[in-house]
Amino acid sequence: EVKLVESGGGLVQAGGSLRLSCATSGFTFDDYVICWFRQAPGKEREGVSCMNPGNRTPYYADSVKGRFTISSDNAKNTVYLQMSGLKPEDTAVYYCAADSRIPAPLLVRPDSYRHVEFWGQGTLVTVSS
């Protein structure tokens, strides 16, 4: 059974930092692209950052480039999202996702969420102004 379990969300002031974790199990870690998506109230889910743990090449949405960093601990089958310089517009539920078919750079494009294979339950990030 594929499992993706997010943690690390919370309330932070603008300009602050948070690190999200996604602990995975039930599949071969290196064979999947692991992504972070987010969904703000009233908005569509959007890709934030993706990587294939096998080659560790990261991809980012333009809105978070230079502020967010995706990384992995392959020994723990865990992916992280380090978020810095947080803005109120980063407020959203952040989801971890895994897909074995779609290349990582395509998963940060609009509407990519419609095709993702597996999802975590999400973790809420609230950035106060």
Brief characterization of the structure:
By secondary structure, the chain is mainly beta. It is built from one helix and eleven strands, in the order E-E-E-E-E-E-E-E-E-H-E-E.
Protein topology:
Layout: E1 3-7, E2 10-13, E3 18-25, E4 33-39, E5 46-51, E6 58-60, E7 68-73, E8 78-83, E9 92-99, H1 104-107, E10 118-119, E11 123-128
Parallel strand pairs: 2-11
Antiparallel strand pairs: 1-3, 3-8, 4-5, 4-9, 5-6, 7-8, 9-10, 9-11
Would you give an account of this structure?
The strands form 2 sheets. Strands 2, 4, 5, 6, 9, 10 and 11 form a 7-stranded mixed β-sheet that branches. Strands 1-3-8-7 form a 4-stranded antiparallel β-sheet, with no helix packed on it. It is mostly beta strands and 129 residues long. The longest helix has 4 residues, at 104-107. A hairpin with a 4-residue loop joins strand 7 (68-73) and strand 8. It is globular and about 40 Å long. Helix content is 3%, strand content 47%. It is built from 1 helix and 11 strands.
